[in-house]
Amino acid sequence: MRAAFHFNPNLFGGVYGWPITEILFRALQQIPAHRRHLLLRKGDLLPEEVVGSASEIPTVVERLLGAERAIWRTVSADWLVKNFTFVRPYVLVVDGLGRQDAALTDSRLRQHESYIGAIEAHGAIGLHWALYLALLVPAYRVVGDELRILHVSSDLDPEGRDEGAMRHWVERGLFHSVEWEDTGITGTLLDGRDTPQDAARRDELQDLIAIQLEMVTNEILLRTAPLDPRLQDALYASLDCFNTYHSSEELAQIALSCRRFFAILADAVYPARKGAGRGTGSRRRQVSEPSLAFRGREPTRDRSTSCSSYPD
Questions:
Q1: Partners of 181 in beta bridges
Q2: Closest by alpha carbon to 132, among 241, 46, 248?
Q3: pTM of the model
Q4: How far is it, in rounded angstroms, from Cα 240 to Cα 96?
């Protein structure tokens, strides 16, 4: 998802961009490195772009907070109505967050007085496109423990690199490395795919993918539960460890849990046949890899009583 984090710049004095950005960077570092592939936009929210008079503020705030579709948000509607045209929030839009990570980041930011709250910025909402995507500038990409400072193609702007930003973030030492990233013509007037329609299609595609993956999750849980309780134990062990792993040894434990999951699944769907094989008759000696048991064999259980009989 794409989350817009709002801050009150009036509490920082004259210079607020880098201090606010550092607050967010530190909050994002609580997310495991393997889940940190994030694109950040930055800039001031410009209410005058969408508000013609004070009487329009409640309607605009209602649209901003998801009148057109349900969105995740933590910002106060009352605060926006009272301050929308008096405080010009500084906004950092983070693309690539999971909902859990967005909520954790929001919770971490709550300790800062300057933090106003967050709104899920959805490309299918016209007002979100106008305020968060069209007007705010793509500035950073975070990949694991690396920060990439974005700049347009040197052919378009030979002096487009923000050398001051490079020096600042290298000196701050928040990341293992700070590099440049050439974004070509993306986000410029030459980018023919930077339109409201493209943004809406992209976010609607993300919603569709999420729905399909949720269905896969439900199928996994529904089909494994009646087969063998140990299946979900092994799956939980692998995913729980993967969620927070920090070393190659932990990855090895994850792989072991995954292998155990498939071994249990193979035993449940294709139980050893009496008298099959030679020697000890052990199915594990007949099949060197449990996954091979799924090839070219029909399930032996009753199709009317077991989920393991599903052909797919």
A1: 150
A2: 46
A3: 0.79
A4: 21
Q: Please, which residues bridge with residue 38 across strands? A: 142
Compute CA distances 131 → 25, 49, 192, 240, 252, whole Å: 22, 8, 19, 38, 45
Residue 173, phi-psi category: left (phi > 0), alpha (psi -120 to 50), beta (remainder): left
Edge-to-edge, what's the strand order for the sheet holding 90-95? 115-120, 2-7, 90-95, 37-44, 137-143, 146-151, 177-182
Domain ranges in the chain?
A: 2-203, 225-309
What per-residue string of b and e applies to 230-256 under the rule 16 or more CB within 10 Å gives b? bbbebbebbeeebeebeeeeeeeebee
pLDDT along the chain (312 residues), means of 10: 95 91 97 93 85 82 84 91 84 95 96 96 91 91 96 81 95 96 78 81 91 92 89 90 86 91 89 61 47 52 48 51
